[in-house]
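Exercise 7. Given the encoded structure of a 88-residue chain, write a plausible sequence.
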């Protein structure tokens, strides 16, 4: 077991950060699943919720800001593609 105070503190910090990161990533996955399951008329509001969660995670450095932007872009593309109706 660690004996130095700095190592003990680092272990405490690591556990704390790990819990925060797991909770944030779980929230991201949950909101993305809610977006995918949402009805067509509520998808825009659901996308806003996902974007908000992704931005908060990026600000807290749980995920990289480019990853957050890439995820938002892909979800927006998916929303736009689904909203386009083929013309008969």
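Solution.
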């Amino acid at each position: 077991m660690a004996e130095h105070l700095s190592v003990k503190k680092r272990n405490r910090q690591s556990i704390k950060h790990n819990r925060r990161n797991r909770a944030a990533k779980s929230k991201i996955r949950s909101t993305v699943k809610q977006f995918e399951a949402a009805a067509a008329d509520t998808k825009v509001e659901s996308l806003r919720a996902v974007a908000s969660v992704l931005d908060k995670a990026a600000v807290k450095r749980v995920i990289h800001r480019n990853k957050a932007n890439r995820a938002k872009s892909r979800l927006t593309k998916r929303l736009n593609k689904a909203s386009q109706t083929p013309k008969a």
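Remark. The CA atoms of residues 80 and 86 lie 13 Å apart. Students should compare their own answers with the one above.
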